[in-house]
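Continuing from the previous page of notes. For each protein in this section, the sequence appears first, followed by its structure tokens. Read the first protein now.
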Amino acid sequence: MNPPPRQARSVARLAAVQALYQMETAGAGVEAVIREFGEHRFDRDLDGLRLAQADEAFFGELVRGVVADQAPIDKAVSRRLAKDWRLERIDATARAILRAGAYELMRRADVPAEVAINEYVEIAKSFFDGPEAGFVNAALDGVARDARGA
């Protein structure tokens, strides 16, 4: 069986960040959010244009994995924040990006660190105009060094 195309994983990563944000801000449960994305958001048309297909299995793994491993993920990210910054103080979207990226860096050795970091930096750029993409890059690079000795 061939692996899903790279674009399908990129879509899954973006959707995972959106799902994590939704879970945090709306208090929705992990399985309910995964089901909602599968039933209502993936493989749909938007204004007559077909959206890119997502790797739904990868999406589910990311969301479930971040939730299951949130304590060690948050600890790993927090170690890479400036001295007086707490993870709770960071914007919820940026927090979701950092958590998803850290999950991949810590638990998915099959994904090269450079690929994971680049993907989440690009996601940050799609949400923010300011320095957040650089912040995400620096934090995830630090998490990669800690997790992989890279």
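Done with the first. The second protein uses the same format. Note its length before scrolling.
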Amino acid sequence: MKERLRVGIAQMHSLLGNVEENLEKHVMYIELAKKEGVDFLVFPELSLTGYLLKDIAYEISEDAEEALNEIVGRAEPMCIVPGLVREARTGIYENSVAYVCGGELQGFYSKLYLPDYGLFEEARYFRAGGVEDARVFEWREWRLGSIICEDAWHPEPAELISRRGADVIVIHAASPIRGLYGRGDSPPERVWEAIAVTRAVENASYVVFVNRVGPENEEYFWGGSMVVSPEGEVVARAKKLEEDFLVVDLDIHALRTARRFSSYKLHRRDVHEALLRLR
């Protein structure tokens, strides 16, 4: 197994509904990642389309698919994971990420938990993904998997892809600012760091949190992307409130150490079965 995996995190500002300009920014980051020798390049949630789409989601999937085809043609020699609206079947849309590895589209992951509280209305416009689509993709002998934003607030999606073999869990996010900013960290920042650290430790895996940044309608996304080691250390952080490109080398030895000296090997299926029986 390759000892190191070089990860590129494109913390970008997407324009709502403007796939053409968002694609141009993706291409810019792809070319930058090639110069940096990146193996695995990840983007935020719905990076090709913008987040607060509402009814635009029904109109934009074809443009997103064309943009994805452009990324496929530029992906060699990396694995690239952009976010997009996907028409999973005729008239049925999902909030997805695509795995484009070595110039080929390997597959999709679609968001399992669709929030419908506060400003979020995803359940109104999207269908939730299926657990059978929570795949693990292999690249440079590393096993990679993704979850999307709200998924990370629940332990099961990260555990699912980890138990299916993921060494790296990517959280693709569109997290807006909440609370008074400028007086230390805002509440979402503190919570997201706690979530990322917890998911890393409980699954003995690297966690890559890639959040979008910048304004969209009345919301503002704060960025602050980070990489957490399998032992729970935040090993790298991107800037807040501005676009950034973060390059981090992941070390296979950290995975080995975490899994040898943790309870990760223990998996109580009976506990999960008991949870299934709860109302």
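What the second structure shows: The chain has a mean pLDDT of 94. DSSP finds seven helices and 15 strands in the chain. We return to this in next week's lecture.
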